[in-house]
């Protein structure tokens, strides 16, 4: 079975027609009795309510068909940058990628990212130029841009017959024949149209040259003037596809079902099976050494969990690729990452929105089991007799964050636990509680990503929330050295309270934190009370003197004081330390600090002017600029407060072709006029 099983990811920019292609493939193979349409919300692969509302895939879907005695698992991945983390996760479970490009819009930003992703996983890749029946479709323009943008150089295997509404067939350059299609998607072989003969002969020469370069023996014979046979061309194509030295290009129309059967022929004939992809590399968890796991059905079981889904009927579904061995319809396996044994009672095959129970699965199979207690996305499952851990892709850095507040008071814990379950399903999300601002923070790839998650939260868990911009974690510090006394004296009916300390407060370099120096001599403050002074200072520093933000980067030297034999206590000295800090901080020229983010922005050269101007308006400081292919990469420091809403703005500026990452860099002083506004607003909010 492993020799006849192929796992193919459909990748590309959103709207290029991946979901409709999957639908047409399933229909052509006889899996579906009728063709659904994305616009009608009745396709096999898009079924989540959020997908139907947006008419766009937000989560990878799985199905399979049999064609030319090969079983093909198709993975329809999202093409929207908001949900691309799911594409990254799922592509690692496949053996090849089919990059779908719109013949009208051509290459767009997610097209390039999908291409880079296939290269990252060394996946054999084929390009399908779709929508040739559309108005303004231009095959030659798109193919030219493909050859300029991608390496290795793509090679044409087909030419379109007709254009726009007249498009009705393709020329097969391997067999040098043509196929015309009727309105029902049925093909018939026809002679190559006269108008295309010259172009077809030139394209075939280019094809033969390209495939000959992928096979040394064939190249030698070709240079001696020998023309390869059709079988030799096919063998060399397969070899070139496996090694990624060739990228075959096909064309057609998904909506008119033109060329889809030929594309399916190619997948069955050329793409590698699970067995042909060879062994997976993993880590021996006991020795830390790299080991190989061949796709042998008789070897001990191993598999990689690459996706988790919350299903209303089955509960939590763990979807995994079987790497080696054969597993039955129920049983147990070992989770290497968690170090525990997990039991399952049913093995499921995914078919769009449905899950079908199956009795066994071998290498290459993509299957699911329900209700594993500890297993999450990225975990390796295996036999206890042969432990292995497979590496997984790193989740992307979230670009935008919102504070999530429940609509109903008292629902904070329910909101957090429900979002945590959605986070298991979507590795592109990040969920944190900010202890300082007491906010639940939900981070993701973009505003659409966050809004979709909120819609799911309401639908799946009945929880409604409000999104707000997060509070900025400002800090305070000091700029001047001072020496003050902190004295706490209180007389009550019984024992009084007495604590007296002198401290020096001075600034430290940015990032050095807090330093406490005990310079007491002669026992003027007993040893047991000194930690209490430090504790009072630390607690007081958590509520700075300007606007109540934590104070950082300062040094305190305790150098004098006095005590009372009866009335002194740890509490009295703690209060004295706190009073001393507040008095000193007020005199030491306190200032407000803001978090500065290190930002890396990647976008085509033509948008650099707009991006630079926008960074300046956000108080950004450019650190440097580099070239990366056709893109420019800007590194800059930008205040976090100015960057909370950058994702939609960059998208708008670059037509979706710009991307960015950011990470915390350091704290820096807020300009005085801004600081005053922040302090006033913070005090107003506190009241």
Summarize this, please?
By secondary structure, this protein is an alpha+beta fold.
Could you explain the architecture of this structure?
The N and C termini lie far apart (70 Å). The chain folds into five domains: 2-189 and 246-270, P-loop containing nucleotide triphosphate hydrolases (Rossmann fold, 3-Layer(aba) Sandwich); 287-382, Translation factors (Elongation Factor Tu (Ef-tu), domain 3, Beta Barrel); 400-468, Elongation Factor G (Translational Gtpase), domain 3 (Alpha-Beta Plaits); 476-588, Ribosomal Protein S5, domain 2 (2-Layer Sandwich), CATH 3.30.230; 593-685, Alpha-Beta Plaits (2-Layer Sandwich). The mean pLDDT is 91. It is built from 16 helices and 36 strands. Helix 6 crosses helix 7, helix 10 (412-425) packs across helix 11 (447-461) and helix 12 packs across helix 13. The chain has 687 residues and is α+β, with helices and mostly antiparallel strands. An eight-stranded antiparallel sheet has the order 18-17-23-14-15-22-19-20, with helices on one face.
